[in-house]
Amino acid sequence: MRTVVSAAAAILGMLLAAVAVPAIWLDRTIVREDGFVALAGPLGKDPAFQERLAAAAVGTIDTSSLPGFLTDLVQPVLEDAAASLTGLPAYRQAWEDTLRKSHRLSLSGAGEAEAEGSSALTLDVSPLVALGAGEISRATGLPLTPPDQTLLNAGGPEQKEWAERLTTYAPAGYLLAAGSAVALLLAVVAARRRWTLLAGTGLGALLVAACWAAVSGIARDRALGTDAGSDVANMFRDEFVAAASRDFQAWTLVAAFAGVVALAAGLAGSQAARRRERATGSMEK
């Protein structure tokens, strides 16, 4: 009976862990603002993405309020601003502010009224627009007032629905992890052969890691196969999905390594326990 209880508890613990760990990763890396910024921040260092994003941001600057005869003067300045924006000292902070504002619109629920109907991942590039407008004003002496929001869609209704599910599901990972810990502890307490349990847990961890790798690959391919609506949005999607995939892959490798260690230790411990039992039996005879 103890063996059955131990096996059932171990299986339950591994199943809960299989769901809990991805949920915790999602919460820490994407749902939480600081995690999202840390993951997406390096994207701003990619030269090709920088240039496209800067051009898109500067291209949204409204110069319609300027007199018509200044159009020929302003146009080359706009082009220069788009080319030099990423080299400005304030660019890094503007990119981080862009990510934070975008996260609040897309995943935090903040600003939902202002951006109602926006896609799941809406880029608010207003900090970059403000940076570009400031450079143009300094170069021309013309006053330009940047908007509070400059939105670039990065998905559609399906992505928005998935984002809403994600923000609901991810925080539950901590509760699931606690349930997994309790189940595994029960398995240890009930086990007659704990080395065998350790080996089985290690094998289970390897299977879980393989499932994570397969499912994350499917999710990555599905995300990359969705048109985000613009070249800039598609580029952001490609870079962000690749960064997220690499980050979660690290968690998968840790789980696989832990599984190998547990399996090896369990097998070695089981063999040592059998040798001791045989030796004890021989001495008794």
Order of helices and strands: HHHHHEHEHHHH
The biggest beta sheet is recorded as: 2 strands, antiparallel
**Class of secondary structure makeup:** mainly alpha
Let me know the average pLDDT: 81
Helical residue percent?
over 70%
Shape: elongated
Percentage of β-strand residues: under 5%
Q: What is the count of structural domains?
A: 2
Give the strand order, joined by hyphens, for the main sheet. Answer: 1-2
Cα gyration radius (Å): 27 Å
Low-pLDDT residue intervals, each spanning 5 or more residues = 110-117
Count of beta strands: 2
- Total count of helical runs of at least 4 residues: 10
The separation of the N and C termini measures 30 Å
Report on this structure:
The chain has 2 domains: 141 residues; 116 residues, no CATH class. Helices cover 75% and strands 2% of the residues. By secondary structure, it is mainly α. The chain has a two-stranded antiparallel ribbon with strand order 1-2.
Tags for this model:
2 domains; 2% strand; two-stranded antiparallel sheet; 285 residues; 10 helices; mainly alpha
SSE inventory with pairings:
Layout: H1 2-31, H2 33-40, H3 47-59, H4 71-84, H5 91-108, E1 122-124, H6 126-140, E2 151-153, H7 157-169, H8 173-190, H9 194-224, H10 231-284
Antiparallel strand pairs: 1-2
Helix pairs in contact: 1-2, 1-8, 1-9, 2-5, 3-4, 3-10, 4-6, 5-6, 9-10
